[in-house]
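quick one, 129 residues, struct below
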Amino acid sequence: MYPEEFHYTKDHEWVRVDGETGTIGITDHAQKELGDIVYVELPKAGDALRAAEVFGTVESVKAVSEIYAPVSGEVTEVNTRLNEHPELLNSDPHGAAWLIRVRLSDPKEVQKLMSAAEYEAYIGEAGSH
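---
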C-alpha cells in the first residue's frame, strides 16, 4: 500500500530520497481524511524549508490542512500540475501528485522518519488521527 522506498511523518507527509534530492508529498491516508481536494498552496523554487515547519496548505471541500516539511532543504522544483489539477492528490498521492522537490541540507534527517511498515502501524493504531 505505502511505497517501501518512501519515509513518512506522523503528519502524513512522505519523502523519497534520490541522492541529494528529496521528493515530498502527502500520503494516501491524508488524502482520504481530507476528501476531495480543491486547492493546493505550495512554496516557490528557491524557498528554504526547515524540517517539521509548515511549507504549504491543502484545501479540500471539508477543511484546510497545513503541510509540514519532513526534511530541511531548498525547494528546487514545484509540481505546477497541481495548480490546474489538485484532484491528482486524491487519485495518485504517491506518484503524479508529488508536491515539491528539495535539495536536502541534512540527509541524516530522513533517519528520524518512519518506514512504510512503521507508518502503516502508526495509522492503524492512530485510527482517524
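Strands lie at 6-8, 13-18, 21-26, 37-41, 48-49, 54-60, 64-68, 73-78, 100-104.
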